[in-house]
């Protein structure tokens, strides 16, 4: 048993240079109250932080120093060991501030702050570190309860001043210990110095003129890969793109049944940001189970809803309130065991595709599937026999990503999931979308596909589905949009189209462009740069064939449709065959039945890849509308009717015919001019410019070297003669002269079932070289040896 291929529609090095954040105004007057004068050597003191002890070191006096200026990058991050991280900040007056964070064996985090190359002004000076802690909001410090003899037990402060001391090597340093249970949090640091005999007080900040910010209990993280990733040392890295957000808050949940996160970390724009990527990492032992993000501007303090990570691959659907909220799960999904599975690797030209909507395919009660699998992927697997009966070897799933119900399935929320809302890309960063340009692109929420970060997201999504789910290919609706730039202009060499064509991971995947526009509900004719990799849905095929069969156009457009790739994409160019709506008139019903047969016949006899729409096999129609809302669930009872039976058998016959005559009908390259001969009714060339002539015939000549017909065999590989009569009257057709062969009829769509198609073929009567075609019908003859 061969599995059906499935087509889905639709580490960088650590950054070495980052910097501290803007936290609060460095007003020394506000902090001076915390400075304790007196002896230069003090005993060990303790601080109460949310009921837990925090230790800080004694302070002593310093010797004379002279200021100097050093210009360089603001901060570098160096990983010293598995349990240690070092941050080096350049100060605005020159010199460096070094912060070392270490996880100790006594369930504590140690913070060691050292000032190097700092020279104070003349005489004696004193250096003090003013520090506070924050998590969710960098503008508001967490309260600290400070106990000492000079302050009451109930006094509360948001910052503490700790003097520097000289360590054993003569360096100025401060060391703080924090309980491990407090983490994660930031320590915001500002330096204050008392210089010279005039006791002049000055503040010292980073070279960016901001506070020094050091993460404790978590790491600065890495900008790549985007989404979450799990490292061997037990850390989970978060990486999130947003150029427009000036503040990004990482929201962590310990319980998915509650509305508010258990912890929010206001990511520092210098420590936790590289370019436009915000990043951080926490240890997997922390009790968090899911996550999301809030994006804010610099002055925006509104309570923004929590957004789903665009790269989340496992989600938790909370369904709490409106808008509906989904969170990424902090869960490393185990790799699926694909042992024993193999890829069919069916060449593009040999595909017979069935396009369906996942929900609509088995949702109806007539599918007779249990309620828990009806309308699901499992429901499709329960109906595999249906595809095999039709001869289908590939399934094209309609847009399967979560989408905005108001806009329809062609406006997805997410590209790595099959469900889950709450990831409005515009709320994350407006550059995901076209923000200017023609055709009102902004109001259409059109993705800016050739913007680098969007291009990267799309490529990584395609690779993810190919690698993790063994998807065999993709079809891009509204593919003409892939050719547009940021301003809406058309690009002759669109980066995304080229990147997909030459991506090594996608080299074996089927890539199909469909220029149908979901906004205007129409096909667009474009010159698509296929790079010899992209297949294209024939935008003109449906229109030309429908116009010809309803006697509304010349034959010449139809002959082009027959010789190129094909599709049964819907169109509103319908014909009621003589009466609108349901009818009991025999003539109208017979004409409608012939037209259905004709459409299917032309689809399968054309040179290209046939694409069946869900419901084609039982005549289920959307009334000419392509609106998503007008697509009805498939009625499985229709297959048990006489009509459903004959159409299903006819499709199965056509599928077998394409495989048997793959030498002509499943060629990778177009037929040579010598292999196609066009005819009128009497073997003369067609009257291309006569609009009153509704007849067209062609002979498809088999390759004499590779396909020699054998006597009487249904596997014979002789020439094929095809004729189409869209007129309202009979036509007598002269078949080409046969040499050492005879013509056998395989199909006549005007004959009654079951005789209108046959595998064995019906030979022409002896001595006859003509065949009488009824109105609105098609025929197929095959040359076989006598």
TrEMBL record:
It comes from Sesamum calycinum. Residues 225-312 form the Glycoside hydrolase family 13 N-terminal domain. SUPFAM superfamilies: (Trans)glycosidases, E set domains, Glycosyl hydrolase domain. Residues 677-762 form the Isoamylase 1-3-like C-terminal domain. CDD domains: AmyAc_plant_IsoA, E_set_GDE_Isoamylase_N. One of its GO terms (biological process) is starch biosynthetic process. GO terms for molecular function: isoamylase activity. Belongs to the glycosyl hydrolase 13 family. This is Isoamylase 2, chloroplastic.
């Amino acid at each position: 048993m061969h599995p059906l291929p499935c087509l889905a529609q639709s580490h960088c090095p650590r950054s070495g240079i980052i910097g501290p954040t803007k936290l609060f105004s460095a007003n020394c007057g506000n902090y001076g109250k915390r400075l304790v004068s007196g002896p230069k050597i003090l005993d060990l003191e303790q601080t109460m932080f949310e009921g837990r002890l925090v230790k800080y070191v004694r302070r002593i006096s310093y010797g004379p120093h002279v200021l100097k200026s050093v210009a360089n990058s603001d901060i570098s991050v160096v990983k010293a060991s598995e349990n240690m991280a070092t941050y080096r900040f350049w100060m605005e007056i020159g010199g460096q501030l070094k912060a070392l964070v270490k996880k100790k064996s006594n369930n504590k985090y140690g913070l060691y702050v050292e000032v190097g190359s700092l020279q104070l002004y003349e005489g004696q000076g004193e250096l003090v570190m003013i520090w506070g802690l924050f998590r969710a909001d960098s503008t508001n410090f967490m309260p600290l309860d400070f106990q000492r003899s000079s302050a009451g037990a109930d006094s509360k402060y948001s910052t503490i001043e700790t003097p520097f001391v000289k360590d054993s090597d003569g360096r100025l340093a401060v060391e703080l210990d924090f309980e491990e249970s407090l983490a994660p949090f930031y320590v915001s640091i500002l330096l204050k110095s008392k210089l010279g005999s005039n006791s002049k007080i000055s503040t010292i900040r980073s070279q960016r003129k901001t506070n020094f910010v050091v993460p404790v209990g978590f790491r600065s993280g890495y900008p790549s890969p985007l989404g979450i990733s799990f490292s061997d040392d037990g850390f989970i890295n978060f990486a999130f793109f947003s150029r427009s957000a000036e503040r990004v808050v990482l929201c962590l949940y310990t319980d998915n049944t509650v509305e508010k996160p258990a912890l929010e970390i206001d990511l520092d724009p210098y420590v936790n940001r590289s370019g436009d990527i915000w990043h951080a990492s926490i240890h997997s032992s922390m009790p968090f189970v899911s996550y999301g993000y809030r994006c804010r501007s610099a002055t925006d303090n509104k309570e923004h809803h929590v957004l789903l990570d665009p790269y989340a691959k496992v989600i938790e659907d909370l369904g709490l309130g409106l808008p509906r909220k989904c969170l990424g799960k902090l869960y490393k999904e185990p790799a699926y065991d694909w042992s024993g599975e193999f890829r069919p690797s069916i060449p593009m030209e040999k595909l017979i595709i069935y396009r369906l909507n996942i929900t609509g395919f088995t949702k109806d009660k007539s599918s007779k599937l249990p309620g828990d699998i009806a309308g699901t992927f499992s429901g499709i697997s329960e109906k595999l026999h249906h595809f095999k009966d039709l001869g289908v070897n590939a399934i094209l799933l309609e847009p399967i990503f979560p989408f905005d119900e108001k806009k329809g399935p062609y406006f997805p929320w997410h590209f790595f999931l099959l469900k889950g809302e709450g990831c409005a890309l515009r709320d994350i960063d407006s550059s995901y979308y076209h923000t200017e340009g023609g055709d009102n692109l902004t109001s259409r929420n059109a993705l800016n596909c050739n913007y680098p970060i969007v291009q990267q997201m799309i490529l990584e999504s395609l690779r993810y589905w190919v690698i993790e789910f063994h998807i065999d290919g993709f079809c891009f609706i509204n593919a003409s949009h892939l050719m547009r730039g940021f301003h809406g202009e058309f690009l002759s060499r669109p980066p995304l189209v080229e990147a997909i064509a030459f991506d090594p991971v996608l080299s074996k995947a089927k890539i199909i462009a469909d220029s149908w526009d979901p906004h205007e509900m129409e096909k667009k004719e474009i010159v698509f740069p296929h790079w010899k990799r992209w297949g294209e849905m024939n935008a003109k095929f449906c229109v030309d064939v429908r116009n010809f069969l309803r006697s509304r156009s010349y034959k010449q457009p139809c002959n082009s449709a027959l010789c190129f790739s094909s599709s049964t994409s819907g169109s509103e160019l319908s014909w009621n065959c003589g009466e609108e709506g349901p009818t009991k008139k025999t003539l109208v019903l017979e004409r409608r039945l012939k037209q259905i047969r004709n459409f299917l016949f032309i689809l399968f006899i054309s040179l290209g890849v046939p694409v069946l729409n869900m419901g084609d096999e039982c005549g289920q129609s959307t009334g000419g509308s392509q609106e998503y809302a007008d697509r009805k669930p498939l009625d499985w009872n229709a297959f048990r009717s006489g009509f459903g039976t004959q159409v299903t058998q006819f499709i199965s016959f056509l599928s077998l015919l394409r495989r048997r005559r793959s030498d002509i009908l499943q060629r990778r390259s177009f037929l040579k001019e010598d292999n196609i001969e066009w005819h009128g009714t009497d073997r003369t060339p067609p009257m291309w410019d006569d609009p009153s002539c509704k007849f067209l015939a062609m002979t498809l000549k088999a390759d004499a070297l590779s396909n020699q017909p054998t006597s009487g065999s249904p596997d014979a590989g002789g020439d094929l003669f095809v004729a189409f009569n869209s007129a309202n009257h009979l036509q007598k057709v002269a078949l080409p002269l046969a040499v050492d062969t005879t013509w056998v009829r395989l199909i006549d769509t005007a004959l009654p079932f079951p005789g209108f198609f046959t595998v064995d073929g019906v030979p022409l009567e002896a001595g006859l070289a003509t065949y009488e075609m009824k109105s609105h019908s098609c025929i197929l003859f095959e040359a076989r040896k006598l």
